[in-house]
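Here is one such protein, fold included:

. . .
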Amino acid sequence: MNIVFGVIWSDPRRNISLGGSERSTPIPLYEYNAQPCIEIRRFCVVANEGPFSQCVPIQIYRGQGALKQGLLVEDHGVIYTGRAGSKPPDLFLGEHVMTKCAVRVEPDGDEVLDYASRINYGKTYNFDHGIKMASIGLVTPEHLGLLSKNWKEAMGWRA
């Protein structure tokens, strides 16, 4: 099952003056001279491996989509929530170099992915199946093949 979900995420190394992704809440941690960023991060399951799933992150990059400096644009693609027949959001001027086809998510409830949401197929995280998470929706059946193909290409696998 290729679920899109959100989890509470903290990153103690982030420089909060640069800004996080959406809904960041910095919390001072004075004794360590650090200010971690606590936020909801979104992920999409790309493979299930026994008691854990391999997932790729979904980020908005401060509303810049895949235009953020330093990204491997070719590893990114649009991911969006919408009902059957809905179209993906327009690319930002300059994102035309993205080669991955957009993937649609059928939402579970009212949560929608930001129009700048980009899925980073080149970065994989492992999550145990027992983690607390909030479901956002499921990748639609017609886009499951694209999701798998995009991920395998970014990871250097031959499809």
Remarks:
- The chain has a mean pLDDT of 86.
